[in-house]
Automatic annotation (TrEMBL):
GO terms under cellular component: nitrate reductase complex; plasma membrane
Name of this protein: nitrate reductase (quinone)
Molecular function GO terms recorded: electron transfer activity; heme binding; metal ion binding; nitrate reductase (quinone) activity
Entry EC no(s): 1.7.5.1
Cell compartments where the protein resides: Cell membrane
InterPro entries on file: Heme-iron_electron_transfer, NarG-like_domain, NarG-like_sf, Nitrate_red_gam
BP GO annotations: anaerobic electron transport chain; nitrate assimilation
Lineage: Bacteria, Pseudomonadati, Pseudomonadota, Alphaproteobacteria, Rhodobacterales
Binding site for heme b: 53, 63, 185, 203
UniProt xrefs under NCBIfam families: narI
Amino acid sequence: MHNFFFGIYPYIALGVGIMGSIARYERDPFTWKSSSSQLLRRKQLVIGSVLFHVGVLFIFLGHLFGLLVPHQIYEAIGIHAEAKQLLAAVAGGIAGVAAIAGGIMLAQRRLSDPRIRATSSFWDTTILLMLIAQLALGLISVPYSIATAEHGEVIKFMEWAQGVFIFQPDVAEHIIDVPLIYKLHIVLGLTIFLVFPFTRLVHILSGFAAPFRYFFTRTGYQIVRSRRQAPRNPAE
């Protein structure tokens, strides 16, 4: 089971996430949206959304660069494994608290308001609860990260993540002896990638792609005129 979850399941999750997103964009482009419920109830949305999105974005980028950037680069700039693990635990813990507070506010709003609950799909609610659970697992793992910082355990996760992307044989062996809390955190994270194409999370890709679309395509911008400049005669 360990070999399956950490040697095979990553490719299943990432494969479905990538190909499913492409298929959804090609097949159902009009469903590619965040389905905002702001018009139904604005209360709690602004604070909860800001805390949640900022916290999750910080954590995602931290994981992305922390796991996929080779450790030799960190060593070259003077950041050793112990310092990197402590920094990730403290900074990630702060961002995690903000994100989970915002997520709980958004979940309470979605579940308690009859109109929002009636217009929410199964995946709208499920993915939010999955993200909150993932954030909770991450926060639970913070004390373990701080306690084991001197052993540089973060190197194991870096070797595992980088090994997945270079199709390294027996990649699961890198994290075979890490605590269970880390393994649960990884499996749930991969599961979120697995269901990604079927949820509103796809709008995240639009956020990353928008700057490239704006600068490198002719249709990536809009021309907006003031009301005074608009022609008075509709025939014009």
